[in-house]
Design goal:
Elements: H1 17-32, H2 36-46, H3 51-66, H4 68-76, H5 88-103, H6 108-123, H7 125-138, H8 143-150, H9 158-165, H10 170-182, H11 189-197, E1 202-206, H12 213-218, E2 221-223, E3 230-233, H13 243-246, E4 250-252, H14 255-266, E5 275-278, H15 285-295, E6 300-305, H16 308-317, E7 326-329, E8 342-348, H17 363-366, H18 369-389, E9 390-400, H19 409-417, E10 422-425, E11 443-444, H20 447-450, E12 456-462
Parallel strand pairs: 5-6, 5-8, 6-7, 8-9
Antiparallel strand pairs: 1-3, 1-4, 2-3, 9-12, 10-12, 11-12
Helix pairs in contact: 1-2, 1-3, 1-5, 2-3, 3-5, 4-5, 5-6, 5-7, 6-7, 14-15, 18-19
Length: 463
């Protein structure tokens, strides 16, 4: 019998289960437009993966997606045909291998061999040779050497250089640079891009009246710098293991989101303060904090969300909060309530999400300038509806998780220019102790200055 008989072949190695899991999460994100944080968290829970394996899988997924643009530029020099001609699954395998070689402390020999084994299992034996050859070419240079090789000189094309060196699309870099200039801040563009590339911390909120910060601190968290309700879970890990989080008395929420919701709840208000509205509520993190704060003033919150499944998420977030708070499925641009019915209104409008690139690494490659233009009419309609919904003397918080000028000041200016019954008030005094808020009257938070998402707030009073 020939030595090539299947009976005499050595059994093939099985792929590393953590790398295989990371690859399958990446495929869900790139092929099915999934959200990395949601898909990864569900997968880790389903597979009951924790500790070092969960941390390694998280870095593989988020790092590969975060640096995708840079890795594609490297791979374009190592593959003999244009990248768009490669099968999408093969390209994701190459990106995953490149991340291990260029930005992780993984031995290059081990990284290549593990990826060849994974390719054999996921894409077939015929593809493993290409992956082996390409990744060996990638491993011949460090990341810095590759950037020097493929990026334009920074003095000739700054944005082009940063696009490769800091893994952000050129148009996003330009928008961030413009936004920093509008705020009158020092031109710390590189610091901002670096902060976007830092893995985010797990930040918790102790919902007032339901949980105390000490409970989160006893579970291993430390206080946040600015929010009186916030704590950072040190070392990461599953926040669901904390009793207050598991029961809904606390939740996972970026410190910036806590600050803008608290600003609305604490803004000075004369007269009635009994009816609050969250106009764009899903998935409900800010709704839960607002409802908790409303309880302290004997107020009730109405949360409106157009999509039923997201409205269900809002209800889930409100499950532990006492009171007759309402969740409505409806279009915030077409109110079913009387004009001037509410005392405080949050309009946390749909936006590009460019302020949360730390948490949603795939968003930088998924969004385009056209998305900004398409969202602006909806943002203006929602803000106008919010102002109409609040009583004279009442307060509206216009909020976006984006620093892009077209989604922030431009929307506020367009709406207020079209009506004479509202004014912007200085919101900075509602952020006590928080530095670098710019010249006002609106507030822009930044990852590199405040260690938060880039949340924007304009505080508008109905006159």
């Amino acid at each position: 019998m020939s030595d090539r008989s299947p009976r005499n072949r050595a059994p093939q190695r099985r792929p590393d289960p953590v790398r295989q899991l990371a690859y399958r999460v990446i495929r869900q994100v790139t092929a099915e437009d999934g959200y990395a944080n949601l898909v990864l968290n569900k997968t880790l829970r389903d597979q009951r993966m924790s500790g070092r394996d969960a941390a390694f899988c998280t870095e593989l997924v988020h790092g590969t997606l975060r640096w995708q643009g840079t890795y594609d530029a490297v791979l374009a020099r190592c593959v003999s045909r244009p990248l768009p001609e490669l099968d999408a699954n093969l390209l994701d395998l190459l990106r995953l291998g490149t991340h291990q070689l260029l930005r992780m402390r993984v031995d290059s020999y081990a990284a290549v061999n593990e990826m060849v084994t994974l390719t054999r299992a996921e894409a077939g034996q015929s593809r493993s040779g290409l992956v082996n050859a390409v990744l060996r070419k990638v491993s011949q240079r460090t990341l810095d050497q590759w950037i020097t090789t493929i990026a334009p000189a920074p003095e000739d094309d700054e944005y082009g250089y940063l696009a490769i060196a800091k893994a952000h699309p050129r148009w996003v870099i330009g928008a961030f640079d413009d936004a920093l200039g509008v705020r009158g801040l020092e031109r710390d563009l590189v610091d901002l891009l670096d902060a976007d590339n830092d893995p985010p911390r797990v930040t918790l909120v102790a919902r007032p009246g339901l949980a105390e910060l000490d409970e989160l601190i006893e579970a291993g968290a430390t206080r946040t710098r600015w929010s009186q309700y916030g704590a950072v879970l040190q070392g990461g890990g599953d926040p669901g293991r904390i009793g207050a989080v598991a029961t809904g008395r606390a939740g996972v929420q970026d410190e910036g989101s806590q600050l803008v919701a608290t600003a609305l709840a604490t803004a000075p208000l004369e007269g009635d303060d009994a009816r609050w509205l969250d106009l764009c509520a899903g998935p409900g993190g800010k709704s839960a904090l607002l409802a908790s704060l409303a309880n302290q003033k004997d107020a009730l919150l109405t949360a409106v969300e157009p999509q039923k499944h997201r409205a269900d998420l809002v209800r889930s977030n409100l499950r532990a909060i006492p009171g007759d708070h309402q969740v409505l499925v409806g279009d915030g641009t077409k109110p079913t309530w009387p004009a001037g019915w509410y005392d405080r209104v949050l309009a946390d409008v749909p936006c590009s999400g460019l302020g949360a690139l730390r948490r949603r690494p795939e968003a930088r490659w998924r969004r385009t300038p056209d998305d900004i233009a398409e969202l602006q009419p909806l943002q203006e309609a929602l803000l106008s509806s919010a102002i109409t919904s609040v009583r004279p003397g009442g307060i509206v918080a216009y909020v976006t998780c984006s620093p892009h000028y077209a989604e922030t000041r431009a929307v506020v200016d367009a709406v207020l220019d079209s009506r004479s019954d509202a004014v912007v008030e200085d919101a900075r005094e509602l952020f006590p102790g928080v530095p670098s808020l710019g010249g006002g009257p609106d507030v822009q938070l930044w990852p590199h200055l405040h260690s938060t998402d880039a949340m924007y707030l304009a505080l508008i009073r109905r006159t």
